[in-house]
Design a protein that fits this description.
The chain has 163 residues and is mainly alpha-helical. The chain is built from 4 helices and no strands. It has one domain.
Length: 163
């Protein structure tokens, strides 16, 4: 066994001791992490809005296309796109929604860890908004994907019923 492997094996057996962190560093670290998670949630919400506008625009273009296509090949593609665009939009919306849910849970976990700290210094502002404001934020970021998903499910259902 080489020396590096032996060191690695020892570190797995005996993890390093945890060092206590000064309150200021802990506060700064937690505040930074919460800001980062908020930024990720905001980015995913923007992705959702942009992607859905693209999908709605594409769907409107295909839905308003002339009944008589220039070629029989294009007629088949129009029918296919009427199904593919809502399906892809629904999948994209679901993926973003799951990402938002995951980051939202991460945010809750960070807030819980911070709230469990016994050494809180009242001279520092809260690391995040009040509980009521956090609930309102969560409501808005969780409802938007659900509205888009519901819209696409409705469109797909109407298409299915028209067959």
């Amino acid at each position: 066994m080489t020396t590096n492997t032996a060191k690695l094996e020892k570190s797995r057996i005996n993890p390093p001791e945890k060092k206590s962190m000064p309150w200021e560093e802990f506060y700064t670290l937690m505040r930074q992490r919460i800001v980062e998670v908020h930024d990720i949630i905001n980015q995913r919400t923007i992705w959702l809005a942009i992607s859905q506008s693209f999908f709605f625009g594409g769907y409107a273009g295909v839905a308003n296309a002339p009944k008589e296509a220039k070629s029989p090949i294009f007629a088949g593609q129009q029918d296919l796109l009427l199904w593919l665009i809502p399906s892809a939009a629904l999948i994209a919306c679901t993926c973003v929604f799951v990402g938002i849910l995951a980051r939202s849970k991460s945010l809750d976990s960070l807030q819980e860890k911070f709230d469990q700290c016994d050494d809180m210094d009242d001279n520092y502002p809260p690391v995040d908004a009040s509980l009521a404001i956090r609930r309102m934020e969560k409501f808005s970021i969780l409802i938007m994907p659900l509205v888009f998903m519901g819209t696409w499910i409705f469109i797909l259902t109407k298409l299915l019923m028209s067959l």
